[in-house]
């Protein structure tokens, strides 16, 4: 489209040693982060982790206590927000209630003294699929449509970077899901860098190419959604992105590229490449596996489980049918302090509370965390 920013590198966001303190409190610890031009980047974390502060430092709405912000080759650290090639969409869309949709979107162009705005505004309304709504007032639109107006109004100025601060926070769940896909489509179409702040892990996973998981003012892990989900490096990331089963184990020996661990009475195998803990013999590792990677087999059929799979035994404590699968809570002596979660798509009628089962999964779906890290 006509929106594409072509000069390469111009939309990189580069944070170098950026930090923010409020008196004695550190909201963001010195942070180095590069968001490549054209990517959809999410800052994900619980309330208070520093994600909004980080976004506001990129926007120029918050002055960093240390460090620099570069947009492409330009050091913008000292520039006020309006001089940065950046626009922000907030959760409160802040549309002008007395102006119609066309004029809301045209506003940025008119303010810059641009006379012929028609084509640009129409293209932009087309992009956000509001071509039909141009002459309506904001209050005549749904929440999702208003949000799209806010996006169009921010994009019309051709920012190099669009910052989105919980932009879908005010929408109900179904509309949120639709808008996630919609924003992703818009980003792909215009090809500019989006930096999106959210506390919703599913939202970050759906939309972003790269996610930075923040905790306590630090980035705990940076990666693609699949990477973070399949291979979390900390218990925080493992638990924040979905449900994980973490089993305490001890390094026993090595076998090729694998580590063999003792857990309860049994053994578990973990590819060394998927372990972020030290792997010296006798060291403690938290062995993780996602519930949907586990197969549940009734103890009577344990003999049919193929060799080479990780396995633990347990008893079904609870089960709940959730349509696509059934979720199980399992008590296991291998992890005496907590329950194991498993999902199963087979509908074995014997898998009811009280049944003895074997949980088994491929070593390749196992990850290892540092038990001593927190
Ligand atoms: P939320 O999703 O709730 O906005 P967040 O992860 O975006 O959370 P920030 O808004 O970045 O978190 O705030 C990080 C921390 O800094 C919080 O503990 C917050 O209370 C604190 N903080 C933010 N602004 C100020 C301020 N002006 N003065 C003092 N503390 C502040």
TrEMBL record:
SUPFAM superfamilies named among the record's database cross-references: MOP-like, P-loop containing nucleoside triphosphate hydrolases
A molecular function GO annotation: ABC-type putrescine transporter activity
Keyword Cell membrane: yes
A GO term from the CC aspect: ATP-binding cassette (ABC) transporter complex
SMART domains: AAA
Catalytic activity: ATP + H2O + polyamine-[polyamine-binding protein]Side 1 = ADP + phosphate + polyamineSide 2 + [polyamine-binding protein]Side 1
One Pfam entry name: TOBE_2
Keywords: ATP-binding, Cell membrane, Membrane, Nucleotide-binding, Translocase, Transport
Superkingdom of this protein's organism: Bacteria
Main enzyme class: translocase
Known EC number: 7.6.2.11
Ranges for domain ABC transporter: 13-241
PROSITE patterns: ABC_TRANSPORTER_1, ABC_TRANSPORTER_2
Entry similarity comment: Belongs to the ABC transporter superfamily. Spermidine/putrescine importer (TC 3.A.1.11.1) family.
Oligomeric and partner information: The complex is composed of two ATP-binding proteins (PotA), two transmembrane proteins (PotB and PotC) and a solute-binding protein (PotD).
Cited function: Part of the ABC transporter complex PotABCD involved in spermidine/putrescine import. Responsible for energy coupling to the transport system.
Name of this protein: Spermidine/putrescine import ATP-binding protein PotA
Native organism: Streptomyces humidus
